Amino acid sequence: MNRLLLQCLVTTILVYKVISVPTTVSSVETTTEKPQQDDDDDDWDEDDESLESDDDGRVYKNPRNSPSTECPRDEEQATLLGQKCLRKCSSDEDCKSKKKKCLCDGVCGMSCIKPDRECPELAQPSLGQVTVVGRHFGARASYSCPHGYHVVGLQSRLCQADGNWAGAEPACKQNIYCLKPPQIEHARNSALPEQETFDLDSTVQYHCHTGYVTNGFPRAKCLAIDGQASWYGPDIQCEPRSCGQPPDPAYGWHAGECYTYGCKITYNCGTGTGYELVGKHERYCQSDGSWTPKELPTCVSDSANSTTTQASLS
């Protein structure tokens, strides 16, 4: 009886192994045949975009390289224009992918760019026409109007590294349009530098340079009154940021009464007072409204200095 039970148990185990082996092999084959992704084969997507743009503290691989003076990066202007900047670079070695090159991307400066990235196909305007030679990075789309009409807006648009055409589609208008918006001292605006004409109801936003504070209404609009188009606004002033009057060290004083961005003051202990200035003689007002260096110099008596010197010598 016991021998019969033992034979049944062995038979059950063997049958179980035979049935389970193919399942295990199939599972292993399924796992090993799964293809692996190559990051270099993937086109630029949202995840890649965040990596490309979030690099303010980037240290270049080659410390001898520095951002180009011929193609500088101006991220504030890019933000005003609605352009997305990619990873900054000084050579191809700074780019993660071999498919990307270090090229000039307008106000975004030298950036890691896929030269074969395409911008979308442009539709023909309802009036006039657009001529496009290629759709890759750097390609240009040129607009023209029939006789008696003017291109109001950008006459040509470039394919940017972010995959978008620069600016907005222009329109063919007859005689009523605005020219370049007014320039405000120490400010920039959201209009593309190459745009010469602007349609009615166009709006331009102004923004003061770093270190300046915006006071007033920072917007201008193209309006037509009595058949004449003109800009109305902005009504702003860009005033330098104040660092406030700095303190003086004990037994000392400072020269200079300008306490705003870009100003400099000089510290003194006075001649014949028996005190000597220890620390930086000059401090500068920075764009964030603080003085640099942060440390205030001190006025130390000559006798204290001589005592300290003698102690160090002994």
Automatic annotation (TrEMBL):
Top-rank taxon: Eukaryota
Protein's recorded name: Protein lev-9 isoform X3
Molecular function terms, GO-annotated: peptidase inhibitor activity
Residues of the signal peptide: 1-20
Feature: compositional bias, Acidic residues: 38-55
Pfam family, one: Sushi
Coiled coil ranges: none
Residues of the WAP domain: 63-116
Region (Disordered): 25-73
Source organism per UniProt: Drosophila lebanonensis
Keywords, ordered alphabetically: Disulfide bond, Glycoprotein, Repeat, Signal, Sushi
Disulfide bonds: 145-172
Domain Sushi: 110-174, 176-240, 241-301
Annotated InterPro entries: Sushi/SCR/CCP_sf (IPR035976), Sushi_SCR_CCP_dom (IPR000436), WAP_dom (IPR008197)
Entry-linked SUPFAM superfamilies: Complement control module/SCR domain
Any Gene Ontology CC annotation: extracellular region
